[in-house]
Amino acid sequence: MTVELPARPVRFVNRDEERARADRAVRDSEAGGRSVTLGLSGPVGVGKSELAYEIGRTLHEERGFPHVLCVDLDDFRVGGALDVGNVLTQLLESLEVEPQSVKGPFGARRRQYRVATSQSRVVLVLDNARYGSEVADLLPASGGVAIVTSRRPLYDLDGGAGVDVPVEPLDDASAKQLLEAIVADGRLAADPAAVAALLELCEGSPLALRVAACTVRSHGLRPLARLLDEVRAVLDEKIVPATELVLDVAYGELSVRAALLYRLLASYPGPTFTRASATALLGAGADAGDAALEELDRAGLVNVREASQDVHARLRLSQTQRAHGRGRARQDAADDELARAHERFLRWFVRQQQRTDRFLAGERLIVAELVGPVQDAPDVPLSDPEDAATDEERITRLRQVARWQYAEQHTLFASVPLAYGRGLDAMGVALCEPAWTYALDHPPRADRIEVFQLGVECAVRAGDVRGIVRMRCQLARWLWESGSTDRAAAELDAAAAAVGLLGEEELDTKLRASVLEFRGMLDSVLGDWTSAAVRFEESRALHLSIENEYGALLQTYRLGQARVELGDPGAAERLLAEAHGSAVGLKRERMAARIGFALGHVLRDGGRTEEARSLYQQSLESARRRCSGFDEARVRDALARTAELEGKPEEAGQHRVAAAEIRLRSGVD
User: Fold this and answer.
1) Are 41 and 149 within 8 A, CB to CB?
2) Nearest Cα to 229, choosing from 214, 216, 244, 210?
3) Which of 3, 15, 80, 469 is the most buried (most CB within 10 A)?
4) Phi and psi, residue 207, nearest 5°
């Protein structure tokens, strides 16, 4: 019996799914009387070796495999090339073959190894393989189990790895569990924000988490928040250099086009990307984009498994990879390489956002020019819900579009500063318009409000009068929502001043009406509903003068809200019902849901709870289709209040719990 496993780790978390997959594969191979190869692939520091040892230990202790042999292939490399003959010699000696009996010629030694492994059940852990071809001669004969770790999938292993077991970074819950187990004091529980920052630094790497935890333990007096810089420095010293050596090897093997994509992705605006956005960034067409991604996958730099099944799957580079890619760009990139890629990507991304904005919100007031198709950057495969043949298909399409927009939120809000920094002011303004639509369903955090400030600056720098009016109105809304009513008023005063420079085209009239609407909304925030009603009436008159049905229904809705606050429920019901009917007729789902929600309040407060419940339910279904946690939570609150009025406390409690869970999950108030 030979067992070459290292000591069992004191703390080992997660990996239940990977271990179960390995166990099923071994059982299947035993039932078929054949050997099996488990390919554990993943980035540096993700815990591949530790998992391989744990699987080997389980096979030895629970499944009765007498021999567990372990080889770090990096110990047998000469100039990067693996000396397979020397590895075979060590393996034969581990199997108790006398050194003097080991065959000299490579072919004879290989046959000797196969005979030896056919006579006993062997588990072989081969660590740090670079290619499948270099381990083919090391795999045990029938009945054995090979566990091969590599930073890249071993696609070139003869027949492919019997079972591919991707090893991903730990999720936040498991990473936190590992941190807590090692630190073992109360500082983590006392400072959740600092824990979140630690987890972000470590990116789910068990190796980085252990280094970080040991650093925290060695500084027992200081609170966690004061140790973050210390942890970052230790990670930079102990983890980054080793990782960069591995990344340098992988990068050096890439083709020119794949290396270019790697460098460009390092400066991608947003934490994740897709096949489509990578293709747009590269700008060489869909086939070339996919080929470059496949090459990055083979090099272990990007995991594209999910993208093969889901065209919208999110892919990522780690922060270490991004830093490495930016470093390589400083050394290898052409002078305007990144600038050209960013301009191409932003044009493509503006187009995709304009398409999905129209799919979700319909035709509405926009000031930016529509972007046409971008050469060698195909559109995201999303279809217009209004072109659907059935209501069911329409709802399915609407959900797909909403999910895409939700998934792209980080890239959207990061692209505005990118456009501003690149001097692409028209694109900055254009991106703020879909950001506005998104924010209506997902009210922005304080840091995202700054994006709308950049929209104003883009418009001012470009001398775009229409953009100035629109961007200042948008910014004002989020300023007063955050409590900065004085700043909001100043923005609206500046917008009103810019209105005097507008022409007489239909779009200019819409913008004049918009400024009146926003001033009325600010009046309402300040409690002056009489002034608000006057401004909404003036705005509606402007929309009616150009026969803009949507603008008129929106102001009718605003007037209905004002009448509620002014104590005139009869007029409020009439106005809201009129606006709701118009929104439904124009197929404006978002507005129909919002107006129906307001009308439901009027009906509920008038004792007509059944009618109110029906409208709330429609609003709830719309919020779900649009992935709007903000709207869903407030509709749940309204349904809870309705249930209370109807004497249904149990139902009311269910709605309140659901609302609380949505707010916790979505981070909405």
Assistant:
1) yes
2) 216
3) 469
4) -65, -50
Interatomic CA distance for residues 225 and 201, integer angstroms: 13
Report which DSSP code applies to 137: G
Q: Are 645 and 622 in contact (CB under 8 A)?
A: no
303: tokens are: 């995991």
- pLDDT band at 159, cuts 50/70/90? low
Mean pLDDT of 7-20: 83
**Could you tell me the strand order of the sheet in which 163-166 lies?**
67-72, 122-129, 145-150, 36-41, 163-166
Single out the residue of 482, 461, 555 nearest to residue 516, CA to CA: 555
Pairwise CA distance, residues 22 & 634, whole Å? 46
Terminal-to-terminal C-alpha distance of the chain = 62
Estimate the crossing angle of helix 409-421 against helix 446-462, to 10 degrees. Answer: 40
Spatial distance between the Cα atoms of 32 and 228, rounded to a whole number of angstroms: 52
Give the DSSP per-residue string, 274-318. Answer: -HHHHHHHHTS-HHHHHHHHHHHHHTTS---HHHHH-TT--B---
651, 426 Cβ separation under 8 angstroms:
no
Strand partners of residue 163:
38
Cα-Cα-Cα-Cα dihedral sign, residues 553, 549, 464, 435: positive
What is the distance between the alpha carbons of residues 559 and 537, in angstroms, rounded to a whole number? 7
Give the Cα separation of 251 and 259 in Å (integer). 7
**pLDDT at 412 (0 to 100):** 96
With beta carbons less than 8 A apart as the criterion, state whether 254 and 331 touch.
no
Cβ–Cβ under 8 Å, residues 390 and 249 = no
Per-residue pLDDT tens digits for 371-383: 999 999 999 999 9
Residue with tokens 């505005």: 416
Rounded-to-10 torsion of CA 509, 515, 519, 522: 130
Contact between residue 540 and residue 578 where contact means Cβ atoms under 8 Å apart: no
Q: How far is CA 402 from CA 60, 355, 437, 583, in A?
A: 50, 12, 11, 19
Q: Say which residues have a Cβ less than 8 Å from residue 422's Cβ, sequence separation at least 6.
A: 339, 342, 343, 346
Where are the extended beta strands (E) located within 501-647?
A: none
Rounded Cα distance between 553 and 544, Å, is 10
pLDDT in tens, 282-309: 999 999 999 999 999 988 899 898 888 8
Q: Is the pTM of this model over 0.70?
A: yes
